[in-house]
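This section describes the prediction task in plain terms. A model, or a person checking by hand, is given the sequence of a single protein chain and must write out its three-dimensional structure as a string of tokens. No templates, partner chains or ligands are provided. The sample shown here is typical of the held-out split.
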Amino acid sequence: MAQPRLGMRQVHLDFHTAPGIPDVGRDFDPTQFAATMQAAHVDSVTVFARCHHGLCYYPTKVGPVHPTLTFDLLGAQIEALHRVGIRAPIYITVGYDEFMAEEHPEWVLVDHNGRMVGRGPLDVMGWRLLDLASPYADYVFAQTKEVLQRYTPVDGIFLDIVRQDITGAYSTWRLRQMRRDGVDETNREQTMAWGLALERRFVERAYHLVRQYSPEATIFFNSRLRPDRDPQASSRAEMPWLSHIEIESLPSVQWGYNHYPLFAAYYQTLGKPLLGMTGIFHKSWADFGSLKPEVALHYECARMSATGAVCSVGDQLHPRGVLDAAAYDRLGAVYGRMAALEPWLRAAQPVAEIGVFLAEHGPRFHTIGRDIDEGAMRMLLELHRPFQFLDKAVDFSPYRVLIVPDDLPVDPEFAARLQAYVDAGGALLLSHRAGMAPDGKGFALDVGLEYLGDAPHSPDFFVAAGELGAPLTDYYQVLYDRGSQVRALPGTEVLARVGYPYFTRSHAQFMSHKHTPYDRTSDDVAVSQKGQIIYCHTPLFGAYRRHAVPYYREIVRALLQRLAPQPIIEAPGLPTTAEVGLLRQPDQGNRYLLHLIHAVPQRRGEGVEIVEDVLPLYQVRVGIRLDHPATRVTLAPGGASLPFETVAGVTWVTVPEVKVHQVVVFE
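The expected answer:
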């Protein structure tokens, strides 16, 4: 089946409306509704069939209609949007349904103590989570079928909160079915695996239901996105049932600005069209009466486009059915820029030179290793080296360097694939315990080292040999986190040694306020190289996320320079606050698109990240290595030509100004 043609500038229009609201849809004007979306350059709007309150916004024979709604609001929205050529996928809640939680409390999941999962009886915030092993699942399917039949063919179906409690949830139905399947309900690992299989059965059944009535519809199941180094635990296993991927990522509070680029860098590799979703609100969903600064919205949409994703902005329709004019003025200003860029965004494919294996693993929402992945992501963003995150099932061959970070065990099959990659000319960068056999007793790869155990001191120090280059010379840089102790075998080049402190601080022996200073350089290896494999003894990537030491990033810069000395992007003057994205459009003569983005998120208030000020960059000199010499370089969307020169295979240009976002087109 052909990939769906997603709207490039979407709105996810929430409508979770309490039953006590007295005037739902009273002021809805279909002409004004569609005109507002059209003026804001919106080409797809996700509209609501049923919300978290469990209430419906169309004449349903399956569930309850909102008690104060007097007409088919869903149908009126779809008709108004279609009249002006705007898509209208349909939203249906799954995991949260307050009406059914009241009507059928036996359908609400409980934990092992018998307490309801989610909002308690006196809690002000949150939702109760319903059990997909109970008859509630059939209720969801009946309503989905009704929507598909009533509005056929639908543009798309968006099923939300398609998940169960991951800490171990129970019900009469679940216990009966688990026992039937031979699952030990007291074993958390078994119950979690059974729960994941239950969720995936629901997803597959829903997919086939939608396809039965609307073969061309887009289909997405929210709350399913899961990066994991194990492809069977990650979202990779569910790709057959998704038409595309939507990365919900409201950065102001809930997710932060590290979330989207990490998820995008993984989901780029799974072969599905990508959508990034932020929100119009200052903080989070249903933050009524707040608006995100325009520059923040511009920055977030620019990041999406630089990863090859289409844009979606979350909003919530006022209960009376009127869109907020100020919100859509602001959205229109940003989407107007994105609309002008559309010829250079459509069907653009990300180009990456470095692959980073995901460290993340474990149960969803309680994972281990996300800090390692975030540290690697921050380093590579700041170094302006295009990268993607990988699970173990991906094809390694497109990448010049593979990073195996900090704490990633390597079984024999994985080791054989990595060795074949190196034998074919690839390069590996490993740190700390990465690359070790699952039993932890030694390296699974021939890295030219003997593993001796944990480093004897923590903190210890990084003492670089001169050939690593500035600034990695003549300084004993503290390494805050305990690393590994390794010994070089014959034929292995040592590039840095471990510096020892006088002693490691303890209750019995300490000095001053923190750790003890450098005493001497030991024989322990800090960095070594054997062929195209470099190893570093310290957990560099997680440590960068925790401590933000620029020197750690510079270590990685120096090591990547040894493994891949001709980066695809050269940006010597670009500040670390700038981000780059490189894409190509094969159907446009294989033209390359260099996205330059600059904004500076700041942490203000209680965990609120703000982008408020435009900080332009001027006279930015950048170069890219192309397969063939460029014949023309322009700025998009204006089309202004830039002087360029090609030196040693690098096409260099000077970009006059980067004001949040600038696209440079290399023909």
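For orientation: Residues 188-213 form the longest helix (26 residues).
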